[in-house]
Backbone:
């Protein structure tokens, strides 16, 4: 199988003129602020050319439908239920595909680029959704989240379950409104999925919908992919959440904005020079994951070294050992354990994932659901598929000093794992659509 370049821009799509703007203005959650604009159309032939070239086609299958890429800007709420907005994308099957489409609501993975929107046919994550779902007859809506793209929110509440859920829920409402305006029929069935941070978001959305909005939104399945569901458990580890140069600073500063008690002064948590700018760094208007490191803004070292450079050791130690530590208690608030999914639910991950280890998150969540006798929640480990496609003779590299080891584990979570989990998600959705 060819290497799947999921996070790389794929073949250029035909760009169509935007069709208006400035409408809406309603304060209702999910109301459209701008007229939905078709920004591109991907033909089935274009999709097939790209998936064949990238190696994705054996998983995605050949496209059955053209896909329209529609930008959305909608009303939602912030962490304190204050009125704000978020943007996103709707992917609509077209061409030979007609009828009433089920709606897949997707939540994206961790992002550090503030201007980025998924309403871009050349975006790798958007193309993956187009190939795996929209080209197969699903309508898709995906939020950019608070604090990204067109959102006026002042920051991104990273891994905050409630605002992740409201962003996803209101994107569903926005998609329904856009479907009416675009003459698109939806079947009324809704599936939820997301990857990495998005797996946390999609599970939070399923929990919130089944608790508060079941009469409005008919969730028939959830597929939560490589998500950090056990945040408090991860903080007990030496290398919490893997990636002290990105994910943990992002989370700590976001939760400080949300709860106000994670630290009394930024220097209590962070060392200089990072303490001078870390609170306003992420998401960045100009820097990417790569340039954050190459510019020296964040360290590119191994997790232990990065942790010692960025964080005050006493701050980390207390979060790992003190049950009353504010960071640990905030993590407990954002864990996704202890609830009972009603719809069919899939958890997916790869055992070799160094960023969101399934042993810490997926396995713990599955055990939690199973402990209450739930039989509608299942888990799948796609590590054998990842090793077969990208390992050395079907095995993961074992020499930490080798280039093969660095390449394999550096690409595991962001590139190798996602399409295999999306394939598992689509199989669940196909069974209930």
Residues:
């Amino acid at each position: 199988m060819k290497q799947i370049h999921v996070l790389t821009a794929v073949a250029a799509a035909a760009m169509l003129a935007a069709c208006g703007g400035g409408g809406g203005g309603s304060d209702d959650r999910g109301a459209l602020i701008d007229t939905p604009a078709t920004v591109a159309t991907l033909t089935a032939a274009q999709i097939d050319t790209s998936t064949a070239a990238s190696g994705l086609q054996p998983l995605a299958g050949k496209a059955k439908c053209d896909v329209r890429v529609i930008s959305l800007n909608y009303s939602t709420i912030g962490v304190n239920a204050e009125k704000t907005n978020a943007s996103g994308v709707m992917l609509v099957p077209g061409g030979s595909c007609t009828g009433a489409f089920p709606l897949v609501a997707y939540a994206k993975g961790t992002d550090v680029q503030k201007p980025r929107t998924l309403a871009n046919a050349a975006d790798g994550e958007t193309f993956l959704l187009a190939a795996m779902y929209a080209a197969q007859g699903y309508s898709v809506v995906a939020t950019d989240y608070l604090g990204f793209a067109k959102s006026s929110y002042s920051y991104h509440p990273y891994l905050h379950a409630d605002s992740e859920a409201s962003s996803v829920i209101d994107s569903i409402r926005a998609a329904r409104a856009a479907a009416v305006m675009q003459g698109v029929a939806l079947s009324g069935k809704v599936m939820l999925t997301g990857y990495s941070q998005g797996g946390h978001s999609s599970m939070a959305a399923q929990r919130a919908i089944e608790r508060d909005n079941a009469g409005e939104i008919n969730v028939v399945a959830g597929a939560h992919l490589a998500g950090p569901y056990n945040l408090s458990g991860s903080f007990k580890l030496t290398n919490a959440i893997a990636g002290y140069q990105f994910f943990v600073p992002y989370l700590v500063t976001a939760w400080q904005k949300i709860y106000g008690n994670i630290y009394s002064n930024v220097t209590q948590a962070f060392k200089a020079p990072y303490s001078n700018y870390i609170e306003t760094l992420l998401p960045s208007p100009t820097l990417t994951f790569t340039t954050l490191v190459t510019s020296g803004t964040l360290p590119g070292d191994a997790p232990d070294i990065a942790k010692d450079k960025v964080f005050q050791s006493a701050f980390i130690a207390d979060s790992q050992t003190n049950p009353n530590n504010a960071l640990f208690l905030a993590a407990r608030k954002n864990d996704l354990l202890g609830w009972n999914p009603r719809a069919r639910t899939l958890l997916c991950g790869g055992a070799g994932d160094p960023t969101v280890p399934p042993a810490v998150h997926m396995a713990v969540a599955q055990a939690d659901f199973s402990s209450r006798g739930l039989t509608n929640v299942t888990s799948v480990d796609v590590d054998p598929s990842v090793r077969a496609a990208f390992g050395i003779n079907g095995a993961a590299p074992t020499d930490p000093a080798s280039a093969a080891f660095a390449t394999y584990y550096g690409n595991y979570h962001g590139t190798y794992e996602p399409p295999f989990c999306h394939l598992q998600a689509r199989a669940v959705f196909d069974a209930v659509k």
